[in-house]
Amino acid sequence: MSATHLDYPLWAYYASNFEGMCLEFDTQELAIADLHQHLLVPVVYDSVAPEPVSFGLLAISQPMEVVNKRLMQKRQEWQHEKEWRYLGGKEGRQHYTDLALKRIYLGPRIALKTKKNILYKMKGRPVEIYEGSVHGYDVKFNCIQKGISREECKRTGAGSFDRNLITSNNKELHAVLGESLDHLEQTINGLCSHPNLERIDGVCTSNNETLIRITATYRLKDGCDISRNHWFDAHMKRMP
Question: What is the pTM of this model?
Answer without folding.
Answer: 0.88
